[in-house]
Amino acid sequence: MKVLLAGGGSAGHVSPLLALADRLVADDPATEILALGTAAGIEARLVPERGYRLTEIPRVPLPRRLSPSAARLPRDLSAAIRAATAAIADLGAEVVVGFGGYVSAPAYLAARRAGVPIVVHEQNSRPGFANRLGARLTPWVAVSFPGTPLRGAIRTGLPLRPEITGLDRTAARPEALAAFGLDPLTTLLVFGGSLGAQRLNTVVPEVAGELADRGVQVLHVCGAGKAVDLTPRHTGGPGYVVVEYVDRMELAYAAADIVIGRAGANTVSEITALGLPAIFVPLPIGNGEQRLNVAPVVAAGGGVLVDDADFTPAWLREHLFPLLDDPRRRAEMGRAAAGFGRLDADKELADLVIRAASRAPK
């Protein structure tokens, strides 16, 4: 099978794209994969590093208001559609799979023009323009979270890397603790995604000394180019380890007993798939999709939700500290999270792609 994958601009689009590619090739090594992306997106590095071909097409951001860029939209979109059409023809694509972002809309339109089946996967609970468009062009629509408003969608979950889905946290914990210089103690993992989260970076260190007094150590992933100021709040006791970025995020999860993080689709999907109890602090900007992403997890008892503005040292003392003192409640939250999480999303989406390529009934 020859599959064109379209998605880029952020890790949220590229990570599930790569997870699907890995699953398709694992199931049938003869599968040919070609990814569409832009020169400026993260996919320009991640896709070739994973061993897949990447064809670059023009980036076509959709303007939100009248501007000089709005006047160029028809020309820019036409150029991107032509480039996507050429990629479809070059591969001989039997199916086009889009994950949203700048490159997906041209890919959907080019596939529709070429008569190639389209599969849409939406990561977030609130879909963006590209996937709303794509969902109008095909019956083959998959989503990560229940309640995502795309007509006829089925919930496959979010495809995750095999390093996550195959992780045995208990077996990997000794290696994980050694990798970060941690001790076999209760461990709080703090991370705000690949770019970090300034609110988390500022607030959690405020209670560093109190965490140490409770016998809790911290692994804090602060984001590339960012820093965490611990002085003079942490003067002894269990460690507070700060790293900018983690290449092997599965080790961070293996070390963790509880997580504080944002609520992006990938973060929520990984945490729930692994059955980790978590405190979610949705990003306060954007279209509110992070709060929607985590709402069903919180409703199921698998996590705690706190608004960014309410995430303060006082809130941590009132809500986090009791969790740290209650292993039984953490275990109950972890089981509830695991009940929501999906470990087989890559297979579910791959099966949908195969059915679409063969034009089988949905």
Query: How many DSSP E strands?
Result: 13
- What is the averaged pLDDT score? 92
Biggest pleated sheet:
7 strands, parallel
CATH class of the largest domain: Alpha Beta
Query: CATH homologous superfamily of the largest domain, by name?
Result: Glycogen Phosphorylase B
Supply the CATH architecture of the largest domain.
3-Layer(aba) Sandwich
Order of helices and strands: EHEHEHEHEHEEHHEHHEEHEHEHEHHH
> Into how many domains do the coordinates divide?
2
Structure description:
By secondary structure, this protein is an alpha/beta fold. It folds into two domains: 2-160 and 343-357, Rossmann fold (3-Layer(aba) Sandwich), CATH 3.40.50; 163-340, Glycogen Phosphorylase B (Rossmann fold, 3-Layer(aba) Sandwich). It has helices at residues 11-27, 43-49, 68-91, 104-114, 129-135, 162-165, 169-180, 198-203, 208-213, 249-255, 265-273, 289-299, 313-324, 327-340, 345-357; strands at residues 2-6, 32-37, 53-56, 95-98, 118-122, 140-143, 154-155, 186-191, 216-221, 240-243, 258-261, 278-280, 303-305. A seven-stranded parallel β-sheet has the order 3-2-1-4-5-6-7, with helices on both faces. The longest helix has 24 residues, at 68-91.
